[in-house]
Structures are given as structure tokens and as C-alpha cells.
Fold:
Amino acid sequence: MATAAEPVLLARPAATIRAVKPRDIRELVHFSDDEPRHQTLFESEHLWSEVICLQGAQGLGPMSDPASDAILTVISGEVSAQVGKVRARMKQWDSMLVQAGVELTVRNASPDPAVLLVVAAPPPVPRLTDG
Structure:
């Protein structure tokens, strides 16, 4: 009887791994009455992550990047998310994949504040915005 091949794990050479100091995400959780707050958690040549804080009826989007896939995770609260044409109400610990080129819109969906974590690879290209 044939068996499936064992997966091969490729290790990076120790010289290319850089020590990264751990960060407490709670230190990035700050809310504003005026607008959504977002702060970069980590950024490297290959990966970018950001903490987004929403309260009241605040929201972000639509936003997209033609070359970056992203994962949206609700750390606390509830949000209404639209990814492309798909809408979903997301609660704490829910995650959603946002594929490259697909628009994402998120809005706080409860009276309580919401905290989101977005992780994208490769890092999105910064864009100039008006205002």
C-alpha cells in the first residue's frame, strides 16, 4: 500500500533569522472619538501587520492592495466586514482571508469598541491620500 510522502520542512539558515522583540498588542489599543485609530504592529520586507481600533459607528474602507493577501482577525468586539461582495458579521476570534485585489470594508457593529488585527504579505504599497 502506498503512503503519502512526509512533508519536508525547510529551515532558514541561522544567519538570516533576526531576533524580534515581542510586543504586547494591548499597548497599541487606543481609541479616538474623531476617527479610527491604526498602528503598525510589525513590518518587514515580507510581512506587515496593523492593529485597528474602532468605536461607535467608525469604519474603514473600501481598501485593497493588488499584490497583497491579508488576514483580518477580530481581537475584541464585533464588526461588519465586506470582502468583495461577501458580507459577514465577525465576532471576537473570527478571521477572514482578503485576497489580493479584493476590496475590504469594516465597520464597528456593536456599542462596544472593536480591535482588529490585519496581517498582509507582501506588505501593501503605501499610497498618497487626499486630506
